[in-house]
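User: Just a sanity check before I run the rest of the batch. Below are the structure tokens for the first item. I only need the designed sequence back.
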């Protein structure tokens, strides 16, 4: 079996990228020596490749973008997901995140904070290099745009989780350089907007070769930046701006929904027509080469023997299981049931042989890939962060809030149709708003969107109040380690 993928390896200055099945490498360049002469001839690209690889951080088990701290802050807090695993395994995480008993010194938030700021510093290093060398050639402007996208994405994570955070736009050389006071939420979003507008201007529409095939699957395009900018606008209820951005993507003709919803979470759908940005991972035949990561492994069924598929974290809730409409095909693509068929002819062990009733089907290892890689656990799956279904539902929400009800219904129904459902009966603003909220809940279940959607809709207290949520839980407290490091410069969030 041939799994064609492309992945930037971790080394910040070593753009060595692997491909499975003998395909052309994702930019085969000499190692970057960082001389001014090399950088002035396009060597900036090597640093940018390091930014793609930084999302994997294969040097450690915990990471701010695709691992347990990310699940905790982005997923556990919604009503669609919970800590998972056995009750005894990481019991404190369940208390902190499922029950909203936030802890300033819990190491999960410290890891999340540090990893995000680590990437910000790497992006700033790229931008500082380009500025110092006064690089303005077309290739360098694309590299600068890529760095700005990653900085914007990272700040978008931070501002959603913590609210006011330090705005660092210069390279850190000494510890004191990082001791900054918080900037307002508006100032952080202003930086996000500026970075993404630049990315939209200079990123290409695609990376296709003369035959129309992508030379660099997974590499950023202007539409990746448009989608993230649209989301940033949506979070501030800038409805007209969000709608315009989404409709530019829609009318470009470059994207479409995959015919099968479940293929978004399988090898067949990776870097496909529905993908606008995903974190790349790859494992070859017999595990060589191994450029995988732990995103799926950490969510795999926690069992024994052939069912030892992972750590079992980030599992569906009973509330999510009950929220799908009867004919919604997304239910079985999202939820793997203990004691039932896995969809490939095997029966999952029953509860309590395995410690949860439900598991995340979106990260389930395909048997063909298990055979190909020689591995039970799924370390080869890409982590999709932005897909076209999100663009459609953002467009629907923005259209509805601007009074374009027929347009909102049309975009919503495209997503419903793919799920095997009929058109929504909603026609007025209130019923359409409820329908769009429902679609976002089931379409992006377990994908780290639900908690933030509830907060921005002002629905969190009503939906999560029974679990302990109060308005104080909108933002997580700044990590105590960051407060201590800043020596009085950084002020803790209100309520904490």
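Assistant: Here's the designed sequence for the first item:
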């Amino acid at each position: 079996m041939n799994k064609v993928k492309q992945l930037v390896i971790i080394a910040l200055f070593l753009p060595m990228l692997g491909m499975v099945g003998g395909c052309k490498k994702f930019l085969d360049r000499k190692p970057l020596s960082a001389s001014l002469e090399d950088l002035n001839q396009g060597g900036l690209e090597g640093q940018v490749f390091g930014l793609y690889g930084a999302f994997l951080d294969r040097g450690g088990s915990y990471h701010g973008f695709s691992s347990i701290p990310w699940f905790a802050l982005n997923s556990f807090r919604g009503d669609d997901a919970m800590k998972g695993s056995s009750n005894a395994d990481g019991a404190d995480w369940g208390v902190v995140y499922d029950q909203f008993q936030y802890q300033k010194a819990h190491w999960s938030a410290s890891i999340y904070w540090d990893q995000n700021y680590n990437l910000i510093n790497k992006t700033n290093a790229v931008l500082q290099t380009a500025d110092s060398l006064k690089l303005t050639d077309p290739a360098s402007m694309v590299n600068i745009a890529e760095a700005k996208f990653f900085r914007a994405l990272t700040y978008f994570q931070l501002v959603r989780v913590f609210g006011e955070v330090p705005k660092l736009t210069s390279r850190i050389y000494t510890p004191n350089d990082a001791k900054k006071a918080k900037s307002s939420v508006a100032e952080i979003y202003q930086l996000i907007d500026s970075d993404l507008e630049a990315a939209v201007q200079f990123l290409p529409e695609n990376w296709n070769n003369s035959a129309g095939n992508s030379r660099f699957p997974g590499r950023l395009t202007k539409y990746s930046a448009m989608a993230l900018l649209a989301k940033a606008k949506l979070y501030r209820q800038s409805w007209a701006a969000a709608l315009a951005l989404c409709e530019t993507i829609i009318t470009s003709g470059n994207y479409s929904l995959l015919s099968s919803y479940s293929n978004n979470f399988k090898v067949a759908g990776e870097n496909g027509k529905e993908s606008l940005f995903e974190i790349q991972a790859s494992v070859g035949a017999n595990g060589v080469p191994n450029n995988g990561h732990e995103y799926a492994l950490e969510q795999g069924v926690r069992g024994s023997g052939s069912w030892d598929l992972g750590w079992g974290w980030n599992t569906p809730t009973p509330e999510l299981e009950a929220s799908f409409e009867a004919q919604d095909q997304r239910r079985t693509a999202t939820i793997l049931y203990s004691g039932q068929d896995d969809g490939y002819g095997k029966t999952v062990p029953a509860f309590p042989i395995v410690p949860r009733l439900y598991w995340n089907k979106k990260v389930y290892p395909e048997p063909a890939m298990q055979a190909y890689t020689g591995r039970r656990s799924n370390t080869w799956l890409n982590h999709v962060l932005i897909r076209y279904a999100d663009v459609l539902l953002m467009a629907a929400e923005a259209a509805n809030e601007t009074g374009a009800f027929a347009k909102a219904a049309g975009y919503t129904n495209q997503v419903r149709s793919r799920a095997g459902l009929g058109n929504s009966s909603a026609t007025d603003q209130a019923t359409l708003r409820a329908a769009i909220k429902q679609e976002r809940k089931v379409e992006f279940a377990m994908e780290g969107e639900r908690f933030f959607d509830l907060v921005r809709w002002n629905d969190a207290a009503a939906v999560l109040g029974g679990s302990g949520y109060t308005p104080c839980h909108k933002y997580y407290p700044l990590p105590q380690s960051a407060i201590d490091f800043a020596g009085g410069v950084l002020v803790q969030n209100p309520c904490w």
